[in-house]
Amino acid sequence: MCDLPNPRRMHGLRTLVIPVSLMGHVAAAKKRLAELEARPTPTARAFPARLERHATLAVWMKPDFEGILAHESAVRFALGLRGQSIAGWPRAWTEVGPRRMDAVLDQAIEAARRHRPRPPIFRSCGLPFRSAKHTWASLLIAHGGDQMAQHMRSHSLGARLREILPRP
Fold first, then answer.
1. Where are the alpha helices (DSSP H) in 5-130?
2. In b/e form, how buried is each residue of 51-75, taking b as 16+ CB within 10 angstroms?
3. How confident is the model at residue 4 (pLDDT cuts 50, 70, 90)?
4. Among 6-20, 87-101, 144-158, where is mean pLDDT lowest?
5. Are 93 and 63 in contact (CB under 8 A)?
6. For the chain, is the Cβ count within 10 Å smaller at the N or the C terminus?
7. Cβ proximity of 85 and 113 under 8 Å
8. Which pLDDT score, from 0 to 100, does residue 1 have?
9. What pTM was estimated for this model as a whole?
């Protein structure tokens, strides 16, 4: 059982029963929490945490999750529009701040949707970027080719994921 107060003092709430098979993970989580709480600042760590089976690690992605997709030629490649002139295509890929990249990606996907012939990627997702960010992110990453892979490796989020994920 977990270290919870007596159920009588919890106003009818039940105690949490954790299977014996997960007790090692509970101990690891408590150890990780103690390590995090002991830090003077979040970045003051003795060593990077490593992802282990059944573990959960938080990865701070800054306010610019979309920044990991902010490579115009890779987005064009993923959408099947490389080398084409597209009406309504956003111009300010490098000039926008990180908090505005979602608007640039939304504008690019809407311009691609209006383009004829419509790119085949729209068979996989017919929703606008703002309504389906995770779906579009996975599609752009999957279809972005080597340029997208290289851009993602150089992005701060990619660097953090390489740091914590186990090596294949």
1. 23-38, 72-79, 101-114
2. eeeeeeeeeeeeebebbbbbbeebb
3. very low
4. 6-20
5. no
6. C
7. no
8. 40
9. 0.65
* Tokens representing residue 149 in the block: 């892979």
CB 25 within 8 A of CB 54: yes
At 107 the pLDDT is 94
Contact call for residues 164 and 48 (beta carbons, < 8 A): yes
In the block, tokens 């994921």 appear at: 161
Between the CA atoms of 109, 153, 135 and 48, what dihedral angle is there, to the nearest 10 degrees?
A: -140
Task: Read off the DSSP letter of residue 58.
Answer: -
Rg (CA), the chain: 22
Please tell me the distance from the alpha carbon of residue 156 to that of residue 163, in angstroms, as a whole number: 11
